[in-house]
Write the structure tokens for this entry.
Amino acid sequence: MKIILFFTLFFLHVQLVHSGCPGTVYYYGFNPYTQAYENLNPAGSSSDTYNSFDTEFDVIACASFTHVKIIFNFPNPNGVGVIVNFGESYTWTSNCTGQPFSLTWHVISTPSLQLNVPSSLYFPACGNSGYQINGISTSGGNGQIYYSYNFITGNGNVTGSPNGQPIVSELYSNSQLNVTVHDSFCTVNDTIEIISALTEPMYAEVCLLTIDSTNSHNLVTWEKNPSMGIVSYRIHKQSALTSQYEMIHEQAYTVLSEYVDLSSNPNQEIARYKISALDSCGNESTISPNHTAILLSSNLGASSVNLSWNPYEGFSYPNFEIWRSLNGGVSYNLLANVANNTFAYIDNNAPQQAYYQVRINNGIGCTTTKSSFNQIKSNIVDQAGNSAAIVEVNSGDDFSIFPNPTNDIFFLKSNQSQIGNKFELVDNSGRIVLSGVLQSDNQSIDVAKLSRGIYNLNMLGSHLKTMKLVKN
């Protein structure tokens, strides 16, 4: 009688019992790729009591092996192994019971299972939420083919697929993906080198929320991260109607990472903002925690100015700084420091004319490609609570500039009454990059050494007025 044994790559032994002479036979296939013997296992393990009819066995193994090793573990002999090539047979004879008997094994190969994988592939910047790997296929084999995947190196997630197209996600380093396939007889594996465009999960957060150089609008700033595959940022603002956050602006990654909310009025309302990032596939990151602007208000006492404000939300800070200007907002001096849980201050014996502003120093700072910010600033108010927003004038008013934009030199044309007043050029971070005094009503100013960008040209007279200048 012939018994057929089917094998794949997992451990098996077949127990033989013959006329009171028990023993075990082990089967191993030699894998030329790993240069090692691998345990073989039939579809179902078998144990049988052999009689005169149970003397022949077919050992069916995957053709990817070169031969099969059969090891006998009988009382006599014990641990003897023989090598049998495909298409050959081996007969073992024993007389452990006192009577000779023979067992014969015929080694038969099945069609080899072949696995084809791309040697390497590029994990794109939009793969945060999942990227399907194509190009995995098989040939040969017998019956249903099963796939499994695991990372040998790397930190990604992989979801299996019955058709051999796994989904990889959250891969933030170059990695090796192991692909294993098996059918009823054969198991084959190979690796794919995956080169990742990402080094960390996509996210975005507001760096700081302050006021623009005109004291008229809120300025939202954030820092870029080149390793996340981000193509744009979305600014979200809390709605005064629904209290929900609504997207108010989307800004390309290539643009300076700051946004002036022209719809805001920091002299009248407290505004809250969040930010999110978008990749090239349209995947959006989790929306960041909010940052809340400071709204400063003031009123007159008998001989004092009473200041009050709300806390800034977005990060922790040690204290608030109270700044005061006595020259119409041209310059400010530090008046006092108060604890971070104090939201009021009284300026006793206050002067008749003064401007006030509350500031917070951010020790880490924020770099928005071309500008650096390290302070949160509230709106500016005078002692009676009036806004000190800078008046933005148009060409043809008190003064004008031309050409605008300019590459090097522009002319500042003003009324005769402006001669002798100070002017200053301020960048987006609020830093004064150029200043001087008007000597004529058509004065030339050289900005050739300044970086490209948009500047505020401030005229410092009885009222602070400003105009935008574009430097090419």
